[in-house]
């Protein structure tokens, strides 16, 4: 198994991000396979839709949020081996040319260690703040994937769609990974799982230990991805997966590791991203937790 960790980015950890380099170095040295960021452009005071598309509240832990691009750049500069991922970036919120430039830069700085992970988000207010139509976010994502592919593989490059237009421009700077970095997509709904099957290089599911661990659901979702990919003539086995593991406050480390092992055995998923957002207040706490999880996972 490969075990990675979320960079300190949200809640109380966000106020300690001056120590992001320390976190990245020490967690890599402890044996982590990857480091990850999430994305929260804003947390509305009175949200129309709540966290994850449910209810009408957003956890206070998401109110402070550091910039994902800056954090990954800082981590890239002090590490040599770990992959650097996004689980997930709300990609449709970003102008496509600027997004392509940021991702290209991160992939070059890290010498090909970037794993871009995208989702369409659930917050109408985030789209409102960006001047975008929340209800067209799925269509915007589809075209955004086309734009990135064009900018990363053509020079000059241009794109003309119904949601996005990019004028013909010089595009000589390409990512380190050829022909482009692999695109991972967050998905739970059937429509989103179809996008993974047809467009994704990887799938980004999630669980919460111990309150939401639906292994049967993960198995069923993966089966749907595989079936749809095969129908489209794609190699389903080539679609990777990285499971996000959020930890409920007060959960013993042993429960986290046992859950990861159980999911691995039942689903075949072999890469996990563990987020200490709800369990660690400081960067030092997060480093200590990562070391404990890695040590326990490697026992036996």
TrEMBL record:
Look up the coiled coil feature and give its residue ranges.
none
Q: What is the lineage of its organism?
A: Bacteria, Bacillati, Actinomycetota, Actinomycetes, Kitasatosporales
Return one GO MF term: alkanesulfonate monooxygenase activity
Against InterPro entries, the record matches this protein to: Lucif-like_OxRdtase_Rv2161c, Luciferase-like_dom, Luciferase-like_sf, SsuD_RutA_monooxygenase
EC annotation? 1.-.-.-
Q: What is the uppermost EC class here? A: oxidoreductase
Question: Which positions fall inside the Luciferase-like domain?
Answer: 6-247
Keywords, sorted A to Z: Flavoprotein, FMN, Monooxygenase, Oxidoreductase
Stored Pfam families: Bac_luciferase
Q: What is this protein called?
A: TIGR03619 family F420-dependent LLM class oxidoreductase
Gene3D superfamilies given in the database record: Luciferase-like domain
Q: Name one GO biological process term.
A: alkanesulfonate catabolic process
Asked whether the UniProt record includes Oxidoreductase among its keywords, one would answer: yes
